[in-house]
Every structure is written in C-alpha cells, then in structure tokens.
Design a protein that fits this description.
With 89 residues, this protein is mainly α. Helix content is 64%, strand content 0%. α1 packs antiparallel against α2.
C-alpha cells in the first residue's frame, strides 16, 4: 500500500516563526474549508460506488479514484495543519 502524503507542515519541527497575515489566513481557511466540502462529496460517492460490486475495469478505476481521494485528503489536512501552525491565535 502506498504511504500517505507527509508534509513538513504537519511535523512538529515546522518553523513557526513565520506567520501568515491574519486577513490572508482567513481567506486560505475559507478555501481549505470549501476544498474539504468538495472532497467529502467525492469520498461519499467513492464509498457508494464501492458498494456496487463493480467488475473490471470499473473496479480498477474506483481503486484509482480512491487512492487519489486519499492523497487529496492527506494534502488538505497538511494544508489545514500548516495554516493552523503558522497563524497567530
């Protein structure tokens, strides 16, 4: 199985001395939230397609989509963690 995306943004050793300006952080958070909403639709659709018992090549395509969805979710989580780490409370 492929390893999930790892970003230095989600590691404890991230450089927290550089902060995102508050107004920019708000906009980035809004975009990350919208991305999360869109990904949730794809995740649920992928799950529902998985319940159909697709035959090849459909099952292969579903597996490819599922892998892509997981990578996108990991990337979005890394983005959200980066924003959280680099924004003033």
């Amino acid at each position: 199985m492929e390893q999930p995306f790892k970003s230095s943004a989600s590691s404890p050793s991230s450089n927290t001395s550089e902060t995102i300006p508050a107004d920019l952080a708000v906009e980035i958070r809004k975009l990350a939230h919208e991305l999360s909403n869109a990904l949730e639709i794809i995740v649920q659709t992928s799950y529902l397609l998985g319940t159909l018992g697709l035959k090849e090549p459909g099952s292969d395509w579903l597996r490819m989509m599922d892998n892509g969805v997981h990578k996108a979710m990991d990337t979005n989580l890394a983005l959200r963690n980066y924003i959280k780490t680099h924004t003033q409370p």
